[in-house]
């Protein structure tokens, strides 16, 4: 696949396109929809999750402002520091991390609980974009490919052992997307893709390998997708549903209950049976209450967000800015694609939330940071196409 033609120009000769209001409007609209859906997810039971998310958004104005107003080239100049900070935060999880649901991913700093594996997503986008920008004239060399692969592999090791399979896959996707857009020869990328697919096949279909690589709850998720749950013959006969198989099945019921037009806002009933419906399975809450038509409209709003990011990438006149936008688009698109695939039982449950909709401090802070960085980059680019 051919890479996008780059047209590097000096920023001093560029005329700013101004603020991308369509990008901002789509992000704000999705955030508001997320708040409404979180409020509805436990309607009649508690408003705690809604209040928590309001607070999360308020706190998120800090990272949003940082990435919106700090010149993007500052991050490139500080690349070694940013990369080291990323590794340090991931490494610290093993010593001061908090374990939740069998995974050690969270670090508590005062009243705030953060997830370094979420921070790693934007930090990898920044550092990998900086790396490729610094070696723009050597993109075709195998050495650049190998160093870029190592750049990605080190943080992935720390993320995978937490364990966080979903975040590990996303970091691989970011590396692949930036490498492709940068112009790394596809034959190099095919080697890595083939290796990843081979390892995935071994993990899924070879029991000893699966048990050696995956945690028990991760193995259950894979079995739930492929075999309908990790159940004994007697349990299958009795119709017993366990773990994530139960979560996915209840999510299916919620989506089916919505039908074409939905039950109406706050009127969903099946949503209350979906475990953790305010986080990874928030899409089922929205689908039940707004139906197929509402879900299509929601995906259309995401499409607008993606289009503005893709347009910025397409017309970017600066290599570094193009890399940043490619990474931001990949993070959002991968999260949405896998999250919706999880609730539709296309993919196993890997713990990837729905952008802007799912409850979670680090999740919404990441979304706001990415939007701030994207708007910042777009405002510094030359007006070419709209």
Q: Would you tell me the overall average pLDDT?
A: 84
Q: What is the tally of beta strands? A: 3
Share of helix, binned: 55-70%
The backbone outline, from C-alpha atoms, is globular
Q: Return the structural class.
A: mainly alpha
Largest sheet: 3 strands, antiparallel
Low-confidence stretches: 1-15, 229-243
The rounded Rg comes to 21 Å
Give the total of domains: 1
* Spatial arrangement of strands, main beta sheet: 1-2-3
Strand percentage lies at: under 5%
Strand/helix succession: HHHHEEEHHHHHHHHHHH
Would you give an account of this structure?
The protein is mainly alpha-helical. The chain has one domain (13-379). 68% of the residues lie in helices and 4% in strands. It contains 15 helices and 3 strands. The chain has a 3-stranded antiparallel sheet. A hairpin with a 2-residue loop joins strand 2 and strand 3 (112-114). The longest helix is centred in the last third of the chain and has 34 residues, at 282-315. It is globular, with a radius of gyration of 21 Å. The relative contact order is 0.17. Residues 1-15 and 229-243 have low confidence and may be disordered.
Task: Draw up the topology in text.
Layout: H1 21-41, H2 48-69, H3 72-77, H4 79-96, E1 97-100, E2 103-109, E3 112-114, H5 116-134, H6 142-160, H7 165-182, H8 186-205, H9 207-213, H10 216-227, H11 233-238, H12 243-258, H13 282-315, H14 319-343, H15 361-379
Antiparallel strand pairs: 1-2, 2-3
């Amino acid at each position: 696949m051919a890479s996008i033609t780059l047209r590097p120009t000096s920023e001093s000769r560029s005329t700013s396109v101004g603020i991308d209001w369509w990008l901002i409007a789509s992000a704000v609209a999705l955030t508001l929809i997320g708040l409404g859906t979180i409020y509805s997810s436990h309607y009649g039971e508690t408003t705690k999750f809604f209040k928590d998310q309001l607070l999360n958004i308020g706190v998120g104005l800090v990272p949003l402002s940082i990435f919106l107003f700090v010149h993007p080239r500052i991050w490139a100049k500080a690349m070694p520091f940013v990369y080291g900070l990323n590794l340090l935060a991931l490494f610290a999880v093993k010593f001061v991390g908090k374990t939740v649901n069998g995974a050690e991913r969270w670090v508590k700093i005062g009243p705030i609980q953060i997830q370094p594996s979420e921070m790693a997503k934007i930090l990898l986008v920044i550092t990998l974009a900086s790396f490729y920008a610094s070696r723009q004239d050597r993109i075709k060399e195998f050495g650049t490919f190998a160093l870029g692969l190592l750049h990605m592999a080190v943080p992935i090791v720390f993320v995978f052992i937490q364990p966080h399979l979903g975040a590990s896959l996303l970091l691989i996707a970011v590396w692949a997307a930036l490498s492709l857009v940068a112009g790394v020869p596809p034959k190099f990328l095919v080697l890595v893709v083939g290796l990843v697919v081979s390892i995935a096949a071994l993990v899924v279909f070879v029991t000893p390998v699966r048990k050696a690589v995956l945690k028990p709850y991760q193995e259950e998720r894979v079995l739930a997708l492929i075999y309908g749950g990790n159940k004994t013959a007697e349990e299958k006969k009795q119709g017993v549903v366990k773990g994530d198989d139960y979560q996915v099945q209840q999510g299916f019921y919620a989506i089916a209950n919505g039908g074409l037009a939905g039950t109406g806002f706050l009127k969903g009933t099946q949503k209350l049976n979906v475990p953790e419906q305010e986080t990874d399975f928030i899409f089922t809450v929205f689908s039940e209450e707004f139906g197929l038509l509402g879900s299509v409209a929601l995906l259309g709003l995401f499409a607008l967000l993606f289009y503005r990011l893709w347009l910025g990438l397409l017309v970017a006149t600066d290599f570094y800015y193009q890399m940043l936008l490619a990474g931001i688009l990949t993070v959002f698109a991968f999260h949405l694609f896998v999250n919706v695939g999880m609730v539709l039982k296309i993919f196993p449950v890997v713990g990837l939330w729905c952008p802007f909709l799912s409850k979670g401090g680090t999740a919404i802070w990441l979304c706001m940071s990415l939007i701030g960085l994207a708007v910042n980059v777009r405002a510094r680019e030359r007006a070419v196409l709209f």
